[in-house]
Amino acid sequence: MTKTPRAFSSLLVANRGEIAVRIIKSAKDNGFRTVAVYSSADTNAPHVKLADDAVQIGDAPVGESYLCPDKIIAAAKATGAEAVHPGYGFLSENADFAKACEDAGLIFVGPSADSIDLMGDKARAKRHMIKSGVPCVPGYEEEDQSDTTLLAAAKKIGYPLMVKAAAGGGGRGMRLVENADDLPGALSQARSEAENAFGSGTLILEKAIINPRHVEIQVFGDTQGNIIHLFERDCSVQRRHQKIIEEAPCPVMTDDLRQKMGSAAVAAAKSVNYVGAGTVEFLLDDDGNFYFLEMNTRLQVEHPVTELITGLDLVAMQLRIASGLPLDIEQSDIPMHGHAIEVRLYAEEAANDFLPATGTISLWHPASGPGVRVDAGIATGYDVSPFYDPMVAKVMAHGETREIARQRLIKALNETALFGVPNNRDFLIDALGKEAFVSGRATTAFIAQEYGNSISKPTPLSEHYAAAAVLQFQAARKKAQASATAMPDDLLNWTNAAPIATPFQYENEEGPVDVTLTPSGDNTYKADVNGTEICLTVEDTSAPWAKIKIAERHVILLYQILPAGQIAISMHGASFMLTDLTQVIKNKDTAGGDGMVCSAMHGLLLEVCVESGQHVKAGDTLAVVEAMKMQHEIKASSDGTVEAVTGVAGKQIAAGELILQITTPD
Q1: Where are the beta strands (DSSP E) in 99-200?
Q2: Catalytic residues
Q3: CATH superfamily of 138-207
Q4: Which segments constitute the Lipoyl-binding domain (predicted)?
């Protein structure tokens, strides 16, 4: 139904992080006055500083701030904002919020509440798609949610199958179940996670399509009934059912398949009178069969790859449509130029089952260059808190070919520094270089097939230690020179006796690494690293960059000198925080010992699954911690008996805090 255009000039962005920054920038470029909202944890966040106005709406927990419709609407009213953009996540797919905005006289930048309500419920959406003739995965999506009914339905569907939260997304409330014995536990965990994340424990079951590609179609609809698609994105590389690498176009897409999938996506959107930006997601198998997965009634995290290949600003298009104007481009006129790939930078420990991480970013240095784009909501000194999703930035590259885009993206990641908090940058560099990805053969099984059940933690090379020593030595020398009286540069490293060797000892899990650094000329050094001699010539130390000739090879690296003998260094595609033990007094006492079970992250201790005196076996679930919207099971590493339980279910817990102690057999 045609809607009378309603111009607006001010926009409140009901979100945070990189998406809030991205929306605010586009809105300001298009002449809109912008308003940010923020929690107490985001007082100094980049999106707050970028907006024309900002309102604090509550404390750090999302239930007291970003998930409070009344506070957001009150902020819009107080600042004179006429429209609200929800971004993604939080309230972006909350039909009640869209309706509340409308009732308050605000323009909601998104589809109607009815469309959100229907497509936001996976069960109802799937039933609707089946009626509309869109191919769907066999499964169970009915209203009866009793365990008895779900167990019976699973038996008919067959294993393996997926348990999914009907109201959710982003991998939350989702479990892959291999056999009937594992289903009851999976139902309980998925239901609990879904209730905490989305306020609804309704589940659906689907036959697991083995090793598919995850391919989605970007759609746009206007208030005049016009609907188009902006081609596809391949989002197959995922961990925990959450995407980490996305690209456009899909490497195996053909013109015929694109036409079929695009038509199906448009039909899906038309069936619900869709308005605004949306994404219809499909699973694509090896035979070219595709199945409806879900429809996201919002802007997607990975929308920039579509922007890079089409040259269109999707946020600007959203704002145009929200004002009631028609789409200004037809399907046949949409361009497709080259290839684009995006990676998501997460604050997490890839080698520790991708556990979310928190901390203070000591240095954020994003890359730049031809075809490179970085969307970020962080800055140097910014605290990554446990209250929000661990994604902190996105790095993208565009090129005339997929290979050019891939090489540009690897180079961009190598030139990106994210120091101070564990992150997945190095893992992304490695993943982009795997042959399966290089050849375009990656499916949703990519990580499992390439890395197995564990990802090796990279270890520093001798060159890393040698470079760290010379950089720390020069930093200390520069500091000493600054405090000296009239010390000329040409006397640095000079001595009338034998060259002075400076010892370093770096902390390492396998034992300390001893480095002896000896000047051998102007900015030239010899480093003995555990008996291996390495020659170095320092050519430039303009932080955060350094250029060092190491054994006849000119190396450009990123670094940051930190207090207490620490140095962050990124070189050869790997980043490390190294500590020189000669500069610190290390406390050898540990906070526990064998059998001490501690939380690996800040979060909510959701459940303690054992009690004092109980015998446990290796692999048993001991506790469940909820952090960054995900539930993480803590399992026993060996057989033993629970000696004491100190953690209290329902209470916040800090990283490293003791939950319980297990006595293991001698």
Answers
A1: 107-108, 139-140, 161-165, 175-177
A2: 298
A3: ATP-grasp fold, A domain (3.30.1490.20)
A4: 584-663
